[in-house]
Target: Tetratricopeptide repeat protein
Amino acid sequence: MRPPSLSLSCMALTALLCAAAGALAAAERAGGAPDLAFAAYQRGYYSTAMREAMKRIEANPSDGAAMTLIGELYSQGLSVRRDAAEAARWYQLGSDRGDRQATFALAVAKLKGDGLPQDRVGAAKLFEKAAAQDHPGAFYNLGVLAIENNGVVSDFAKAARLFEKAADLGDADGAYALGLLYKNGSGVAKSDERAAEWIGRAARDNNLSAQVEYAIMLFNGIGVPKDETAAAKLFLKAAVRDNPVAQNRVARLLAAGRGLPKNMVEAMKWHVLARAAGVKDAWLDGELAKLSAQEKSAVEASLHQYVGN
Model:
């Protein structure tokens, strides 16, 4: 149950830079008037969201949040054909009017080269602009950039400061990344206790990778008191979110009766799911082969019910 190395984890984080760009449900708007555009967006009524956002801009040409929403609709192709360039244009308009989510989304677009030329330096400047407005995702991404550092020596100390700022603002990715730095002693003094504190916080905020990592720490008693039952519950929570590593761990725990009551049918269900996702386990393969024909049929039925749901 070894966690991924920090370098691999941070490489993976780069692929997730755009994750917060879709979090418009948390977009800000001053005042207490009903927000019909964002309400429609949250409920999946995207044509209505577009129409209401346009109405807002007609009434207030400085409504940056409405411009950001339109950019998101174009970015995701919701009620309109996906048009990254048009999305970037709306993000730029929103950013020019001070909307921090627009600035963040524009930074992501520049970093990826999505709808406009790729520009890492320009993206970093925009992340800094959004961070100055306390955008948690901007601090997180600046931390990732500090680790990548354009291929030069990683600045883990700077990354740690930025991840902590992101985490303090409620960003689960930032908390998880900071926990990994503490676990590996990169940029901060190595501390399993501090690692568990931050990774546990991210896990409680439903960060999937953190749930798996924290479950490993609980199971092995790393930085926290050993608790196989709590670990098993957390592995199971991640398993139902289709994490193959968690599915493999749940299968092993069920097969061994550790942290969960022994149940070979359920164990093999999770094993088959994990194996289909690429997680090989010779021991579990052997246990599966030992099942009776009736037990194997029960596994198939359990799989069918799970996949059908």
Summary: The mean pLDDT is 90.
